[in-house]
Inverse folding.
């Protein structure tokens, strides 16, 4: 079942078009990754989907529902989550308080409490340290908290901008393994990544973005084997 369908997406800043007519889809239970060089427009795709780019047009359907003109807050309520490239935790709040912030759009206090308990079961490290400041977590643990926080809204699709950036290899593996757990739970995952090899190994399908347009799309395994992808994005010389 298609959870996220994006058609002819365009987006940019102040008259400069960065994303130039992108089509992409994410199914329930699937991890899809957009790869591309620095500046290709990967982050702008996610911002354009999430109604954060000043210039945008196109079509965005979440579980069949047109959400293109919906505000980012309503998108969260509708079931689309977005974790930006730069850390977005609240360092001076505790882990529990950060999780509560993830549910500030829920008006049912009992449901919020249930969701926090459920998320803490999934991430034991967060439960153990729930009363500590988020700033005390390692970089990888902070990424887990960001992911956990989006789960409070029980999203259908989670978009992650460079979830592996700046993390030690072990934490990178843990973040990708977490993405897989969410997919197994039926969520659709859309990532953008510069860590091409590891991200594709963790994904089902991928899109190669160049200058704001999709150049290649295929199963992740096929992209890993694709000579153009290895030459341009995995540092392998042809
Ligand atoms: N807020 C902004 N204002 C103006 N230009 C921007 C802004 N953010 C990104 N850009 C430009 O858009 C292009 C694509 O950026 P981005 O989507 O961040 O690429 P990627 O995530 O693939 O590295 C770059 O040329 C960048 O300089
Ligand atoms: Mg980026």
């Amino acid at each position: 079942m298609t959870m996220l369908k994006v058609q002819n997406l365009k987006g940019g800043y102040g008259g400069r078009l960065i994303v130039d007519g992108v089509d992409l889809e994410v199914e329930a239970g699937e991890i899809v990754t957009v790869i591309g060089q620095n500046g290709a427009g990967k982050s702008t795709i996610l911002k354009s989907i999430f109604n954060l780019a000043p210039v945008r047009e196109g079509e965005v359907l979440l579980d069949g529902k047109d959400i293109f003109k919906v505000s980012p807050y309503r998108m969260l309520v509708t079931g689309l989550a977005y974790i930006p490239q730069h850390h977005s935790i609240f360092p001076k709040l505790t882990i529990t308080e950060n999780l509560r912030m993830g549910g500030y759009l829920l008006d049912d206090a009992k449901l919020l409490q249930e969701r926090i308990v459920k998320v803490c079961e999934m991430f034991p490290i967060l439960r153990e340290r729930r009363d500590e400041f988020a700033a005390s977590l390692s970089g990888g643990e902070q990424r887990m908290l960001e992911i956990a926080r989006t789960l409070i809204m029980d999203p259908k699709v989670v978009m992650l901008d460079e979830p592996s950036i700046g993390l030690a290899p072990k934490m990178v593996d843990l973040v990708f393994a977490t993405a897989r757990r969410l997919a197994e739970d039926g969520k659709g995952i859309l990532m953008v990544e510069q860590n091409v090899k590891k991200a594709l190994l963790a994904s089902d399908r991928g899109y190669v973005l160049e200058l704001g347009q999709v150049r290649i799309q295929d199963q992740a395994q096929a992209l890993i084997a694709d000579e153009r992808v290895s030459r341009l994005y995995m540092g392998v010389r042809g």
